[in-house]
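So, can you check?
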Amino acid sequence: MRWKATNIPRLRRRRARVAAPPDPTPVSEPDPAPVSEPAPPVLPAPPVVVPRWIQLVLLPLAILAVWELARAIGPVLLILIFASMAALILNPAVKGLERRGIPRPLAIPLIYLSGVAGLALVGILLSSPVTTSVKHFQADIPSITRQANRDLGNLQTFLNHHGFKVQIKKQGHTALDTLEKGILKRSGDIVSFSSDLLQKLAEISFALVLSLVLSIYFLVYSESIGNLVRRVMPPGDGTREDDLPYRIQRAVLGYVRGQLLFSVLMGTSVAVSLWIFGVVGLFPDGRQYPLFFGGFYGLMEFVPYVGPFLGALPPVIVALLAQPISAVWLIILFAVLQQLEGHIVAPQVFRISLRINPILIIVALLIGDELYGIAGALLALPVSAVLRETVLYLRRHLVLEPWTAAAAGAIGVGSAADLEVLPDGCPDCAAPAGPGDAFCRSCGASLEPRVRTPG
């Protein structure tokens, strides 16, 4: 067998591997996978202590400055508040579209267009019963007018028979003729009122458009605004439940849910009550227009103070024109509903949704009405919900330095033997204290070592 010269180096390398002793170095086994340690518990952030000189000087000045600024910018502040509330209400829907892969600049106009489409759909669904109700009412106007004139004639006969010198219906003049003459005499006042009304409507429309534009910008820069609030406010513990922007948004959504539930309950109650009145004959027109009257009353519940009164006007006016005795029954009905609304329904609904004492709710409505009228009363409850969450957050993360003499001057006095180390909790209220806390989060008492009192 013939070997080629090129095979000789290969044979030498093979013999060297066979003759070489085994490597005494043991083969190192792979290190076991490291055991993951549990994450450390989330510790509460240390509170921010406000010194006494800031409390004494800057806080009153800050309150006065904010009050004067609110009075100076008046309508501008109202527009800003309205736009911010609208942005807080719509922001969860925008974030929901973002989670589904839709970019935020596209999600914002989609939400607004969806809102407009929803309102249009509601209008289409209600247009049929409302149109039917209006047609029935137009057809009944002649009979309602004749019945009203007959009732006026009967009342005039009753007054003349009993000696009352009151002219309600003159000879040859109907109630509509008298009303027409009164309107013609006061045509100048009507023109002036119409002009003022148009001017006010133009101002309201401009404010609404401006609020809409501002709310869009608030939504575009919502992340930046939230980060700014987090930087300005004392730091939280990092959890979502301790995040102030999230808590504020949740509070506003709670108000919206409560208001919607309240309006639906009251509108349904009015519709059912008027239908029952129509069935039993106390208000015959209640069987024909229950959806219209109930829906209008529910919408008016969004307007504080005057909303319930405005919502009750259409059925009462119809009853006055048809059968005045029916108007009396309706006034009694709405008075009972108002008592139930003010003492049972509203306090319970808003107490649960806003978690605010009913007394504070009434005070907030009065302050809002005093500052900005109906618009201020409309925004009073959501603003109160935002203020409540802010106060609770500051109460948890902000501690005012106490004004007691022991906390002000006792620290550091005496020898080391005279000082005692406080336990983990507050010695005054026994509230738990976090690591590094210098003052109690509940009562503001000092947690530093104190001088023992002799005896």
Summary: The chain is about 70% helix and 0% strand. The longest strand covers residues 48-50. Residues 104-161 form the longest helix (58 residues). Residues 405-422, 450-455 have pLDDT under 50 and may be disordered.
